[in-house]
Amino acid sequence: MFNIDEEKDKLTKELSEQYSKNIITIEEYERILEYINKIETKKEVNIIEKIIRENAIENNEIMIPKIKENHLSMFSWRTTNVKSINGNGGKFISLFGTNRIIVDNLPKGRTVINVNSVFGLTEIIVSKNIKIINKSAPIFSGIFLSNEINRGNEELPELYIVGKAIFGNITIKAIDEFKKEDEQKKEFEEKVKEKILKKIYDKI
Asked: Would you say the C-alpha torsion 176, 178, 179, 183 has a positive or negative sign?
């Protein structure tokens, strides 16, 4: 249920954090705070929230609500479906392992995931109805973003990716592209299986 006072408190807290980090000046802080105090509708909340978020992006700061749950893949393989909790999709760590992250159902607004791939692989499989903002950084590694990903529509739910790839890879693919590759892989495996069985039968 929408609570105007809770929303105003949340916006004030984020604004204060930006001021404390010198992201905005005292004049900007006071101006936006004045707008927050005058908020009466959900539409006004969304407008002010967008202004605060844009300030964070312009200064390479993204405010991520703390979440205890981490998804660690160490010397193993793991698949996880992202769930947005107050705009946070969780933290994913691939350490000599593989994390496959499926993102196909997000609420409107921004969902942030923190991805770290250390001597490992992270695959982020995203539905076409989700906008991607990739801020992850490669260090002696690669980050690959598919051309099939939809990044143009402002009305789409937004997946904001932060983190690092250190001697590892982060690959972001459209879900349709992933399904096509998966089908091709299965088809190839079936052909190999047929050839092996044929050789076995020929020797009998």
From this structure: positive
Same domain, residue pair 87 and 168: yes
Q: If you ran DSSP here, which 8-state letter would residue 27 be given?
A: H
pLDDT per residue over 10-42, tens digit each? 889 888 888 877 777 888 888 889 889 988 888
Same-domain pairing of 77 and 49: no
Section 174-191 average pLDDT: 68
pLDDT computed for residue 99 by the predictor: 92
Q: Are residues 155 and 132 in the same domain?
A: yes
User: What's the rounded Cα separation, in Å, for the pair 175 and 80?
Assistant: 14
DSSP assignment string, 45-81: HHHHHHHHHHHHHHTT---------EEEEESSEEEEE
183, part of any domain: no
Q: Are 158 and 110 in contact (CB under 8 A)?
A: yes
126-143 confidence digits (pLDDT tens): 988 888 888 888 888 888
Q: Is residue 85 classed as helix, strand or coil in its secondary structure? A: strand
With a cut of 90, say whether residue 175 has pLDDT above it: no
Q: Token pair for residue 125?
A: 């499989």
Q: Specify the pairing of strand 121-126 against strand 169-174.
A: parallel
* Structural domain containing residue 157: 70-176
Instruction: Please report the pLDDT score of residue 67 as a whole number.
Output: 52
Spatial separation of the C-alpha atoms in residues 33 and 21, rounded to whole Å: 16
Q: How many structural domains is the chain composed of?
A: 2
